[in-house]
Amino acid sequence: MRIRFFIAPSLPKDHVGRLLAEALAAALSEKDGLQVVCSSKSPLSNGHPESTPHLVHVFGAWDNAAATFLFKARNRGIPTVYSPVGGLISWNKEQEGIQRRIALYARQLRMIGQAEAVVTFSQIEKQSVEKMKNAIRLETFANPIITNTVTMDGLVGQMIKLYEQAEKSFDEKVRQQINNKIFAWKDSVSIHAILFKLFYLQHQLHQGVIPHDSIAELGQMMMTTDYNEDEMNDILQQLKMDKWIARLEQILSETDGLTEGFMPSPPLNDSTTKRIKNFIEP
Hints:
This protein is α/β, with parallel strands linked by helices. It has helices at residues 16-29, 64-75, 98-114, 123-132, 152-181, 189-207, 212-224, 229-238, 242-255, 271-277, and strands spanning 2-7, 35-39, 55-59, 80-83, 117-120, 138-140, 210-211, 280-281. It is elongated and about 65 Å long.
């Protein structure tokens, strides 16, 4: 699993939330099967290892950078976890103008609502989040930076479990949304399976990477599934997926030996096909 930590730039270097994020990222990086990038600057842009995480964890609430990063990750179909780390707006903070407090509260409410899970590290912060009544899932863990009631290894175990559950629950929602899109053709079981895979590959492309195993699975389905090609092409055109499958056919012909006898439509090798190839992960 690739995990991206984003620390709000407004958090001071000695802020307990920043210290926690950096220590947690370092400890997670030592675990097999995990890749963790911890940064306050690098954007979610194609061409960087951190641009294609399986999950994003944002720490901090006070600046637009943290909110923008979380929203962008969610818009790209990447599950997010959010930790305010002491940054929730206090309505008793008189030095903040009322308009700024309203704006901050609205932004924080949206961040909490869009996160697949919210993780707090104190009971006071937990209560503040609960009052907002917008969190999908809320967990509270002890912070090993300020207490000896939990070790960093203990927190790592808790966070890995939470990350895995967040990724799984998000993926289940994506799959349900795809099933809803192709509900009208539910009686065509074989066609339904291929349509589902086509939409799921679009989701993976939107995230920033298509694992080769995922596209190879489509090739196997096309070679082993018995379906009516005329019916398939009609449905693909109605769904505006005809060019998408044609481009994938071209790629599969080059990477997995898919032949035209197993293609419902002629392959398409255009500039978009060439760009898609750059998103395929070995």
